[in-house]
Design a protein that fits this description.
Elements lengths: L1 H11 L2 H10 L4 H7 L4 H30 L3 E8 L9 E6 L5 H12 L11 H21 L12 H4 E6 L2 E2 L5 E5 L3 E6 L29 E7 L15 E6 L11 E4 L3 E13 L10 H7 L8 H17 L4 H4 L34 H4 L8 E13 L6 H14 L4 H4 L8 H8 E8 L4 E8 L3 H15 L4 H45 L1
Parallel strand pairs: 10-12, 10-13
Antiparallel strand pairs: 1-13, 2-6, 2-8, 3-4, 3-7, 5-6, 7-12, 8-9, 10-11
Helix pairs in contact: 2-16, 3-4, 4-15
Length: 518
């Protein structure tokens, strides 16, 4: 009787009984149907069905996990109607012909120690080569000055800018300047620093006729003068200003938005903004080297600038000199980053080593140059009108003449080819006007965000398991309970086995001791 009583608990603790009991109470319908099947055919049918559905579930779960690991993103579009003058872009303008002809010839002859009558060098390609070499020397000299400066042989701000007004307020004549070997002296307008705080009564509203609310109209007007008579004829047959519309604290020569402003033309540029924010694979935190360059200056990090600096280091490494077209970027940063002696040695225009720059791969050689996490794009629409019109020529001429007299020279002196009877023709050949304003179209904000988060992954896995085999999160807890019971059963078996062996060992040891005494 006692043996039968001992057998029942032993059977209840059997591993197969534990599993069978769990199968009979399983929340998964397929497993429960297999357990309660009354025939072989029914059991095989439900077993195959469960295996097929489980396989499909695993395939879909694997797909979800792979997509999550790939970090796909989605774009959320929103619009912002409010316009703030703080978001007005920076405007940079340069004369298309970068140098004054006579000053360039005089300076170049002096640098080359060439006699004044050596005019045979100034023809076509020879002239252009000497111009490139001259610009390279200017860049090197500019770096020695420890700060960005303009070059004397180029155009000063007062030579180019006749009038500047922003929202009815006059601009300070202290625009930010920099020198570039392709553009000469360039000047940047930033409404945060270069606008008077108080509106003057004598400020003329050039946009008062075709636009309303002129004081808060978010507009910049520039009246510029070309000085075509001082152009270098071998450089370019065109006469215009080049204007860049770019984000504040960005280097303008890297901007994609640049336009030509032709003489005798009023150019109206209307921009709309698009702000793109990235959440992944962007440069959110600067490297230690980048912090040394960017954090101590007002220049904003950008991938394009990072590529330029990386290319500069690449050429300097393989050629032991610096390409002058890239050397110009030094002037925007601390001299602590340009103190290396070799960095100031410009490469010759016929340097054979420069041919190796074709092997430069920005993606390969500059892995740290990730895109910036926020990009502002400016979409610009342009329209044109004759400027000035027939009846306003005298008024504009008086304003320009007054400006040059304030500089200590007359309009006739600034245009030696024009006689006093032909001042109007001279004006029309050189006057340029541009208005930059914001579009009434709302600002587009494109924000990138992850398509799958860990919450989405868990929800997708739960949806797949519930769809195919009817398992929820509590079911996984029950599966964990089954594993725990089986583990306890195994530990109990191991403990019983060790106890029995130890008991037999002790019995044999005692029996040997007793037998040895007798």
């Amino acid at each position: 009787m006692s043996s039968t009583v001992e057998m029942k608990p032993e059977q209840e603790k059997n591993a197969l009984n534990i599993i069978k009991k769990w199968f009979l109470n399983s929340p998964t319908h397929g497993i429960r149907r297999i357990s309660i099947a009354t025939s072989i055919f029914e059991r095989v049918f439900w077993s195959l069905t469960f295996v097929v559905f489980t396989t499909l579930m695993c395939i879909f779960i694997y797909t979800v996990i792979v997509k999550y690991i790939a970090h796909p993103t989605k774009i959320n579009l929103s619009v912002r109607q409010h316009r703030d003058t703080k978001n007005f872009p920076a405007i940079t303008f340069c004369n298309l012909n970068p140098l004054r002809s006579e000053k360039f010839i005089d300076d170049d002859l002096y640098d080359q120690r060439t006699p004044p009558n050596s005019n045979q060098f100034y023809t076509d390609d020879d002239y252009k080569n000497r111009f490139i070499q001259y610009m390279g020397r200017l860049v090197a000299k500019n770096l020695e000055n420890k700060q960005p400066t303009i070059i004397p042989s180029g155009y000063k701000l007062d030579d180019l800018l006749v009038q500047c007004t922003f929202n009815g307020r006059t601009c300070h004549r202290n625009l930010t300047s920099f020198f570039h070997p392709n553009y000469g002296n360039c000047y940047t307008f930033n409404n945060d620093y270069h606008v008077e705080a108080i509106q003057r009564n004598d400020t003329y509203h050039f946009w008062s006729i075709d636009d309303e609310n002129t004081v808060e109209s978010y507009k910049l007007f520039l009246e510029l003068y070309l000085h075509q008579n001082e152009y270098i004829q071998y450089l370019d047959d065109r006469a215009a200003f080049r204007i860049f519309i770019h984000r504040k604290d960005d280097i303008p020569i890297l901007s994609q938005n640049s336009f030509f402003l032709a003489p005798t033309t009023f150019t109206k540029l209307i921009f709309s903004q698009r702000i793109i924010s990235f959440s992944q694979q962007c440069r959110n935190d600067l490297t230690p080297g980048m912090k040394q360059i960017f954090n101590s200056h007002d220049i904003r990090y950008s991938q394009a600038l990072c590529f330029k600096l990386c290319e500069l280091r690449y050429i300097r490494k393989i050629c032991q000199c610096t390409d002058q077209s890239l050397m110009v970027y030094f002037q925007f940063f601390s001299q602590n980053n340009t103190k290396t002696r070799i960095s100031r040695i410009p490469c010759s225009t016929n340097e054979e080593c420069l041919e190796n720059r074709a092997t430069f791969n920005s993606r390969q050689h500059c892995p740290d140059c990730l895109p910036e996490c926020e990009i502002i794009q400016y979409k610009v629409q342009s329209s044109f009108a004759a400027y000035p019109n027939t009846r306003s020529i005298e008024k504009v001429l008086q304003r320009v003449d007054k400006h040059f007299k304030a500089m200590g020279q007359s309009l006739v002196q600034s245009n030696t080819s024009a006689c006093s009877n032909n001042r109007k023709v001279s004006l029309l050949d050189n006057i340029v006007a541009v208005e930059v304003s914001a579009s009434p179209v709302a600002t587009e904000i494109l924000a990138e965000s992850p398509m799958y988060t860990w919450v989405d992954v868990i929800s997708s896995i739960g949806g797949q398991t519930g769809l195919w085999i009817g398992v929820s999160l509590i079911s996984f807890v029950e599966i964990a309970e089954l594993l725990f019971l089986l583990l306890c059963h195994c530990m109990e078996k191991i403990y019983q086995s060790i106890s029995i062996r130890w008991k037999h060992f002790c019995q044999r040891y005692i029996s040997k001791k007793i037998s040895s005494r007798f």
